[in-house]
Amino acid sequence: MLVLIGSLVVLVSVLGGYVLSHGQLLALWQPYELLIIGGGAVGAFLTANPSKVVKASLREVAGLIKGPTYRKDDYVDLLALLYDIFGVMRKEGILGLEPHIEEPESSPVFSAYPRLLAEHHLIEFITDCLRLIVGGSMNPHELEQLLELELETHHLEAEAPSQAVAKMADALPGFGIVAAVLGIVTTMSQLGGDTSRIGEHIAGALVGTFLGILLCYGFLGPLAAAMENRVQEDGKAFECVKVALMASLRGYNPKVAIEFARKSLSAQSRPSFQNLEDHLKGSRAGARQ
Prior knowledge:
It is built from eleven helices and no strands. It is mainly alpha-helical. The chain has one domain. It is elongated, with a radius of gyration of 27 Å. The protein starts with a helix and ends with a helix. Mean pLDDT is about 85; it is low at about 285-289.
């Protein structure tokens, strides 16, 4: 929602200031300049990026309207899920995890959190980590290095759409100059004719430069930054899983391991200790019933 509000503030401020300084709004309506700038930028974007990045960019832009993927309630569920997994490890041993990680959809541990179960990337990350614990003979230090490498790869892939949009934003002033130059070429062809027409063409050429700069710094540049911030915030869920698993492997009991993970979350999305404790007590009470 803030993306829409911010864009509206930019538009009202720029156009409002222009109108208040006795500018004519119709003079800014230059559809051919907009076609040159917008079409050129979109064409360059399609040329520079594979189809999966283009599709992911569209999804990320739509996702900005919805807000972050994981909210505070989702982190409560994630921590509770990890707590339940550690409970299985303590009661049944590491091998007791096998039926849960092979088919998480039918696992009573995972299916208790349908909202998280719908996040396929996160569930796949959790089950892959647990497979390494069940089937591997790595010590915690080796496993931590492997998980950090996987997280780095995941973050690079997740940030690709925002970087692609940022590069497209950087190209907009250049396409604005292209539109302005083409406008000057048109103006030169009108020399010797009606002077009012020459003035209109010059104004149109200047609008091309204006649109390129405005679209870059007022809209697409901030949009790319918002996409990057969202990716970083969503990545906290994966970091939370890694911290909890490493704490458990180092011998901490489930409650302490979960507290390590809770502390890794940002203050904005981190559930309080009491909120998490109440949720865990409620889950245990429901399981006994």
